[in-house]
Write a structure and sequence with these properties.
Blueprint: H1 4-16, H2 31-68, H3 78-82, H4 88-113, H5 116-134, H6 140-154, H7 157-166, H8 174-200, H9 210-232, H10 245-253, H11 269-277, H12 299-323, H13 329-334, H14 337-357, H15 361-380, H16 384-394, H17 398-409, H18 414-429, H19 432-435, H20 449-473, H21 482-494
């Protein structure tokens, strides 16, 4: 449950900040002032996280592009040079997610002891170095080693960015901002196809294969941008140099007492233990009438896990699926671009409408249904045009994930709960990165029916759990925690 003492400490700490000196004279109902400040925040925050996330997705999923790069020249292809036959490619994907999942939550705790710029910058620099090392790999064992290290290096980035957004934006503003930065995935997917196409022509230049050039040229930007983040990315509204003193006061005060902030660094171990022990803390959890532990099902974690299987399937196997349509070499790489551009438009449209209507559940369900049709087409249709259309649909998975995650962040209050929510649920959801690769073994190609049917079933199940969560918590975007849920249940039971 949300700890009231922690909330009071957060409010008291905020009031001690110089940015709150004029707090008593602030008119938080001044919509014109708020909109002006939010626009300034957008222009100074979103470019940073979009750039970071674009590079993150490129470096995390470039193995998919590397697998098909120069596949028209077998001797120079990654699969042949490293012996990625059979299930080895699937294992090399899954091994990344083992440390990635384990380190997500600890990383989010450490972010609270450092500033966001220091911790996110550190993450980027280390994963950039590991990506550069991937170009030097000469064996399958070496690839597994660098993939494992990459999982350690990248852990905490996504939940850290989500937590960072909570420092700047109100709950009903987050889905749109999440869509903008996660839209970088679609941009990265499109850009990676174009980049891989160009890099394919560097094959054998400087005695390097095309895939080695790919890891080299995508690792360098991560280090450079990480250094820039370390020194220049704004940390908190209370010390934002791009805002005036009055604007800093307004920007921090408008978030309310429940949002984490600059001075909200108190981590309460007792609260954390109590929170983790209470099934209702994991907000989107189902509390059955029975008190038996087995009956407490964490619906939110389950839903996000089911959706994340689709995200990882697309990220790592879209180039392979397109290659099975008969397109080789740079043509196959180029055909990964249009689905990602389409996905960007859909994701932005769904999330902006979700924020403006202040509704989450129906948007998540509609997006899940849309993506489910794509996997159904992949499972039952053999026509290459229909299968290519299916790739367009499954590329839109984030249109469901982001409103769902925005709903999640609006159900927790304070530092401890927010860190647990963002780190915990994203860590558990990324277990989908371990399972998804094994749904698409090379022996199932070119149709991959098992993977398509399994993820279709996952998404249908996710629709069911999302409906339950909408009934349990409501479908809106405002703050609502376990105390509110308990009050609602008590009121319902007394009627």
């Amino acid at each position: 449950m949300v700890n009231q003492d922690e909330q009071k400490m957060s409010m008291a700490a905020a009031c001690d900040d110089p940015a709150f000196e004029l707090g008593g004279s602030i008119d938080l109902s001044d919509r014109e002032t708020e909109q002006r400040i939010v626009r300034k925040i957008d222009w100074h925050i979103l470019p940073w996280i979009c750039s970071c996330y674009l590079i993150n997705y490129l470096d995390r999923t470039n193995l998919g592009n590397a697998r098909t790069l120069n596949n028209d020249i077998p001797a120079d292809n990654l699969v042949q040079q490293l012996g990625l036959t059979g299930i080895r490619y699937n294992i090399s994907i899954a091994v990344f997610f083992v440390p990635y999942v384990c380190m997500e939550f600890p990383s989010n705790i450490l972010l609270n002891y450092f500033s966001p710029s220091i911790w996110i910058g550190r993450i980027m620099i280390t994963w950039g170095i590991v990506t550069l090392c991937t170009a030097a790999v000469r064996s399958y064992g070496g690839l597994l080693a660098v993939r494992f290290c990459l999982g350690i290096a990248e852990a905490g980035f996504f939940p850290g960015v989500v937590y960072y957004l909570c420092l700047w934006y109100k709950p009903n503003e987050r889905a749109t901002r999440m869509a903008i930065f996660a839209g970088s995935i679609a941009v990265a997917g499109a850009f990676s196809g174009l980049l891989a196409t160009g890099i394919s022509f560097l094959n054998r230049k400087g005695n390097l294969s095309g895939w080695q050039w790919l890891f080299t040229l995508e690792g360098i930007p991560a280090v450079l941008i990480g250094l820039a983040v370390l020194f220049f990315m704004p940390n908190y509204p209370a010390d934002a140099k791009f805002l005036t003193a009055e604007e800093r006061t307004f920007a921090a005060a408008r978030l309310g007492p429940y949002a984490p902030g600059k001075h909200d660094k108190h981590w309460d171990g007792k609260v954390a233990r109590e929170t983790l022990a209470d099934p209702l803390f994991w907000v989107f959890a189902i509390q059955c009438e029975s008190r038996d532990l087995y009956s407490r099902i964490t619906a939110a974690d389950m839903s996000d896990f089911l959706m994340t299987n689709s995200l990882n399937a697309f990220g790592y196997f879209a180039p392979t699926i397109i290659a099975t349509l008969g397109f080789k070499g740079y043509t196959g790489q180029l055909l990964t671009v249009p689905p990602n551009v389409f996905a960007l438009l859909v994701i932005l449209g769904v999330c902006i409408h979700s924020d403006r209507s202040k509704e989450r559940t129906r948007h998540v369900i509609a997006a899940l249904a849309f993506v489910s049709v794509g996997y159904l087409l992949l499972a039952v249709v053999r026509n290459w045009i229909a299968r290519y259309v299916a790739v367009f649909l499954i590329a839109c998975t984030n249109a469901a994930v982001l409103p769902f995650l925005a709903h999640r962040t609006s159900t927790v209050k304070g530092l401890t709960a927010t860190a647990l929510a963002t780190g915990g649920i994203i860590a558990l959801a990324n277990c989908g990165g371990i399972t998804a690769p094994f749904l698409f073994p090379s022996t199932d190609g070119p149709e991959y029916p098992m993977g398509s049917w399994t993820i279709f079933a996952f998404l249908v199940a996710s629709v069911g759990s999302t409906i339950y969560l909408g009934w349990k918590l409501g479908t809106g975007s405002e703050y609502k925690d376990v105390d509110d849920i308990a009050a609602d249940d008590t009121a319902a039971n007394t009627k």
